[in-house]
Amino acid sequence: MLLGAAGHEVVSCVGGGDELIESLGDGTEADVAILDIRMPPEPEGGLVTAERLRAAHPQMGLLLLSHYAETHYLMRILDIGTDRIGYRLKEKIASVDVLGDTLERIHAGEIVIEPVLAKRLVERPRGREEKALSELSEREEEVLKLMAEGRSNPGIAGQLYISPKAVEKHVASILSKLGIPPDDTGHHRRVLAVLTYLRARWVET
């Protein structure tokens, strides 16, 4: 109902990962697959299915849903990919606007991370990362949190009510202070750099 209300067409609806893979093998095309992390046939079947889909359909977007914001789920998802992918809490996307925004951003090539998890990662620095993050200004910390959610520069500007130019300056300063090296490809540099940084420093305990 939410998908229909948001203007999306549901091309397949199945109960498990194997059925989803099979349905896509008969020529059915989809822009984004929505998966429950704990869907059949395995305890974390959604993650396994997402891995299979990314290998077989690399251009397809993936939205993984869960009742819980778990760091180890995020680490698995980042191993699957850092573009056209999302991890959201079920309770947070139970509205047409939020679901529509999430799907549109994934389809556009972004990564979308549940804000509460992104905030938790940014606000729990350790060791040398704590020192690096302590050098950020309050505004830069706000920008970093939104970057960790996968927000684009215009998206960050809209959230903080500042100009895109100001966001660019903050992003450049953040990357410099965190010691993130330049990415020659320029492919989602701000997102990939920060997510790589977070992935390198966070291990579920």
From TrEMBL:
Organism of derivation: Saccharopolyspora erythraea (strain ATCC 11635 / DSM 40517 / JCM 4748 / NBRC 13426 / NCIMB 8594 / NRRL 2338)
Transmembrane segments: none
SMART domains reported in the protein's UniProt record: HTH_LUXR
Domain Response regulatory: 1-107
Protein name: Two-component system response regulator
GO molecular function, one term: DNA binding
Alphabetical GO biological process terms: phosphorelay signal transduction system; regulation of DNA-templated transcription
Superkingdom per UniProt: Bacteria
Modified residue annotations for 4-aspartylphosphate: D36
Keyword tags: DNA-binding, Phosphoprotein, Transcription, Transcription regulation
InterPro entries to which the protein is assigned, alphabetical: CheY-like_superfamily (IPR011006), Sig_transdc_resp-reg_C-effctor (IPR016032), Sig_transdc_resp-reg_receiver (IPR001789), Tscrpt_reg_LuxR_C (IPR000792), WalR-like (IPR039420)
Pfam families for this protein: GerE
Domain HTH luxR-type, residue spans: 129-201
